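From the pipeline queue, job 12 of 40. The input is one protein chain; the requested action is below.

Action: predict structure.
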Amino acid sequence: MPLTIPHVVFLHVEADTEAARLFREALLGISSNIRVRRVMTGQAALDLIARSDRQEAGPPFDCLVTNRSLLDMSGAELAARLRKRFDPELLPVIELTEEGSAEEGLAEEGGDLPAADPLFAAVYRQTRDPRQLAQVAGEVVATWFAAARRFHC
């Protein structure tokens, strides 16, 4: 049964079309109130925010999910630039990564990883396994909801 959550827009920064499609489907499987917008580069995400700044008080989406390795910058560089403008509760940034291994103390594929970098609300292992991806998508939504202060007022 889908969770009852308020309407939310996730911006997914991912160059890989198939990975983006799978993640979108996993998010949409959680709630019909979720919308997903995808851009392929960090600069496209920053441009989207710059265009909306003239019209809105905040970002045009509720949460940003980025791949660690983007075409034009790292996920950390994108997060650092966003942190200069938005605090983590207003715009949580979540990183998906294929890097690391269980031997290095990281979670198995699909699990959550230590978010040692304060730029990110959380870091999760990117996977293409549908069951594990559904779990990751659920954790992403839960992380967003926990960080989104406007719904806790």
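Job complete. Residues 101-110 have pLDDT under 50 and may be disordered.
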